[in-house]
Structure formats: structure tokens, C-alpha cells
Write a structure and sequence with these properties.
By secondary structure, the chain is mainly alpha-helical. The protein is 62% helix and 0% strand. The chain has 21 helices and no strands.
Length: 424
């Protein structure tokens, strides 16, 4: 995302300059947010295309209202949810949503339950944007080589395609970025236990916790792994105590059904909106059994590579970025808006690239980060090409980090201390 110094770089990578990146990001931001402004300029609940504004968010006010009405047993009833959507819309719509989140997620929106849907959505999106930019600021402060690129980082943050998608859809992606940001800051301060606790909060989107605990376990990062398990278990235990076993049983049945038969719970356009190994093979291979085998094999490979990197003596920027990339690649249902999770990796690796600009083996990192930043925008092209280009780039980035980890490139301030670093 941020250019390396031009000297000593191969000629074919010198086109990635700060000036060009700034121009590309400005054009991208103006296009994305110009479209958003025009689309949302209509008064009322519906946008110019006839869709409900912040459409994906509508499930949370409805679920919160069910809780306030002591009807939590209906949280996972699709008919109840979609009847409520029609009530809010005041007419029949093409919207069909299913609630896949834990009941504790809906509980967070209970304080807003008496407000109108659009008011609740506006409040949530304001809080989400605040989380997003605070996280970027905290990460940027940990990247000394990016201090001189403050404006460029800010423009890129605004232009990042997943930000646009999470905003217009009203998604709850910002807490994912918050969990990863807090985890990185805890690792940076040599607090692996706290880092694990932060990562454990990702259980509200449990598909993010497929690769991460396995990497920490295989790398024998016991403090972080214990913190993650305790954090995730505590959140689920709270939900069980508060809502009761019947509600939690419905949640796990819904979750397991989605995991076991994903095609039955996804919309027709879902594969082109997702950016993981599984969606990559779904688009590429027409046979479900072959897709499953390819996904399992590639997921194991991604976890193994991330584990090797995590156990290496490389800088925290390299190790933590590898952990995030593995979490994204192995995640079977990661939509474009949840790629906000990649923000720490993009910033940390950009900082690493600038700090090691004179190292020939780092030359590929800049172009790969550029592609990783922009390619999620072109996901819909996969409906014609059957090739989700972002996924090979994420996999190549993980592979490149493994190669870098085999050669020491230590940078100040990003190395774990104490005995934990000997294991991690």
C-alpha cells in the first residue's frame, strides 16, 4: 500500500510511488463514495436502486426487539425475521436474510431497540467508522516508517473497497478490525494473554476462529491460546446463561447446518462476494467433493505456513500479518466487507517494506500489497472469469512472508520479548 524507496528497487516496481498511490486512492475514493452519495440521496428507507438502505443491518434491530419482547426463541426463525423485514419496509421486498450470529450479538443492540431502523443504522455506522479510523490511527502510530505518509494512509483508509461495502450494507465488520488491532497492540507490549483475549472475542464471527487457534496451538503459544479459549468460552457461557439452552441449541444447529451445507445457506451471488480459499474453488471447480478436498488441503497448507512463520524469529509485523492472512484464507464465509480484517496486515507490511527498502528479497512486497488492497473491488468479475483474483494474491502474500521469515529482517519495536517470543 505504501511505496518503498525507489533506489535499489527493480525497474518494474518503481511505478509504485507515493504520488501515484495518492492519485489512485483519491480516484477510487471519489468513485466509491460518489456512488454511495448518489444512491443514498433519496429520502426514506429505500435507496435509488430500490434496496433498503444499510440492508444487512436490519436483522440486528429486529433481533434486539425480539429479545425485548421476550421472544428470543424466535431469533433463528427465518419466517419471523423476514416477516419483520416486510413490516419495517411496509411492502414486500426481495430481501431474504438469515440470522447466523450468536444471540449475544443481538443483545448489544437492545439499548437502541426503541429507535427507528434508520436511526439505529446511522448510530451504528457512526460508531463503526469511529472504530475503523481509531484502529487505523493506533496501528499507524506503531509504524514509524509511515509517519511521513500520514495523508496517504488516511486517503487509502477512505478508499479501501471493503470499507465502502461494509458501510453501504450496514455490516458489523468494524469489531473484527478492533479485535485484531487490540491483539496486535497486546503482542507488541508483550502481553500474549491479553492478545488471546482480544482474538477470542472474534467468536461472534466464529469462522474467523478456524485458523487462529490452530496456529497458536501448533506454535505452542500457550498464553495467547489460553487467553483465546477462555475469552471465546466466556462469551458463549454468558450467552448460555442469559438466553438458555434452547436458544443456544438453535444457534448451534443453524451454525452447523451452514458449515455442513454452505450451498443451502448462501445466496446465488455469494461466491463472487467472498474472498477465501473455499469460495475460490467453488468458482473454479464444478464438483462439490473436489471443492471440499481442495479447500481442506489448501487450508491445511495455509495453517502450516502461518505456523512456521509464527514460530520463526521474524518481526511481529511479519508473524501477525501471516496470522491474519491465514485467518482470512481459511475462513469459509468471508465476504468482501469482512476484509477489513486485513487492515493491520496492510499497514504493518507496508511499514516493513519501507524499512527494508534496500533489501532485494522485499521487492515483491510492495506490488503484492497494492494488489491485495485493490483486487477485492473486482470480485464481481469472477461471475464471468470464475477466478477470484484476490485469493491467489493473499496466498502469494502468505508464501512471500514465509520466504521473508527464513531470512532475518528485524525492525525496531516489532519483536516479542521474554520467553513467549522463544515459543512464538
Amino acid at each position: 500500500m505504501i511505496p518503498s524507496a525507489e533506489k535499489s528497487q527493480p525497474a518494474w516496481t518503481r511505478w509504485i510511488t507515493a504520488r501515484r498511490l495518492r492519485a489512485h486512492a483519491l480516484i477510487l475514493a471519489l468513485c466509491l463514495w460518489g456512488v454511495c452519495a448518489v444512491d443514498f440521496a433519496t429520502p426514506g428507507l429505500f435507496d435509488r436502486a430500490g434496496n433498503i438502505k444499510f440492508q444487512d443491518f436490519i436483522q440486528f434491530p429486529i433481533s434486539a426487539r425480539l429479545i425485548t419482547q421476550h421472544r428470543a426463541q424466535h431469533l433463528y426463525n427465518d419466517e419471523v425475521l423476514n416477516d419483520q423485514i416486510r413490516t419495517i419496509a411496509g411492502r414486500d421486498t426481495h430481501v431474504f436474510l438469515r440470522y447466523f450470529y450468536g444471540p449475544q450479538v443481538a443483545l448489544a443492540f437492545v439499548p437502541l431497540a426503541r429507535l427507528s431502523f434508520l436511526t439505529q443504522a446511522a448510530i451504528w455506522m457512526a460508531l463503526s467508522l469511529l472504530m475503523y479510523f481509531v484502529c487505523i490511527h493506533l496501528l499507524w502510530k506503531s509504524c514509524p516508517a509511515l509517519r511521513a505518509h500520514r495523508r496517504l494512509v488516511a486517503i487509502c483508509a477512505i478508499a479501501y473497497p471493503p470499507l465502502f461495502h461494509f458501510f453501504v450494507r450496514g455490516q458489523i465488520s468494524a469489531p473484527i478490525l478492533l479485535c485484531f488491532t487490540l491483539a496486535f497492540l497486546a503482542f507488541e507490549k508483550d502481553r500474549p494473554w491479553l492478545a488471546g483475549i482480544a482474538l477470542g472475542f472474534l467468536v461472534f464471527k466464529p469462522q474467523f476462529l478456524i485458523a487462529i487457534p490452530l496456529v497458536l496451538l501448533l506454535a505452542q503459544s500457550w498464553a495467547a491460546f489460553a487467553g483465546l479459549v477462555i475469552s471465546a468460552a466466556s462469551q458463549l457461557a454468558f450467552a448460555l446463561i442469559y438466553f438458555g439452552s434452547s436458544v443456544m441449541r438453535s444457534y448451534f444447529v443453524t451454525l452447523l447446518h451452514s458449515a455442513g451445507q454452505p450451498a443451502t445457506t448462501e445466496l446465488s451471488l455469494s461466491p463472487i462476494q467472498m474472498h477465501s480459499l473455499r469460495s475460490f474453488f467453488v468458482l473454479l471447480i464444478p464438483w462439490p467433493t473436489a471443492v471440499l478436498i481442495a479447500y481442506i488441503v489448501s487450508a491445511i497448507a495455509a495453517i502450516a505456513i502461518a505456523t512456521a512463520i509464527w514460530k520463526s524469529s521474524s518481526s511481529l509485523a511479519i508473524r501477525f500479518s501471516a496470522l491474519i492472512l491465514a485467518a482470512v484464507l481459511v475462513n469459509p464465509h468471508i465476504y468482501v466487507y469482512d476484509l477489513i480484517a486485513l487492515i493491520p496486515a496492510l499497514l504493518l507490511l507496508s511499514n516493513f517494506a519501507v524499512e527494508n527498502a534496500d533489501t532485494p528479497s522485499i521487492a515483491l512486497l510492495g506490488p503484492m500489497l497494492y494488489l491485495g488492497f485493490v483486487l477485492p473491488l473486482f470480485g464481481p468479475l469472477a461471475s464471468w472469469t470464475h477466478l477470484q483474483l484476490s485469493v491467489p494474491v493473499f496466498a502469494a502474500l502468505l508464501w512471500l512472508l514465509w520466504r521473508i521469515s527464513r531470512t532475518p529482517h528485524e525492525t525496531p519495536g516489532h519483536k516479542l520479548a521474554s520467553t513467549e517470543s522463544l515459543v512464538v
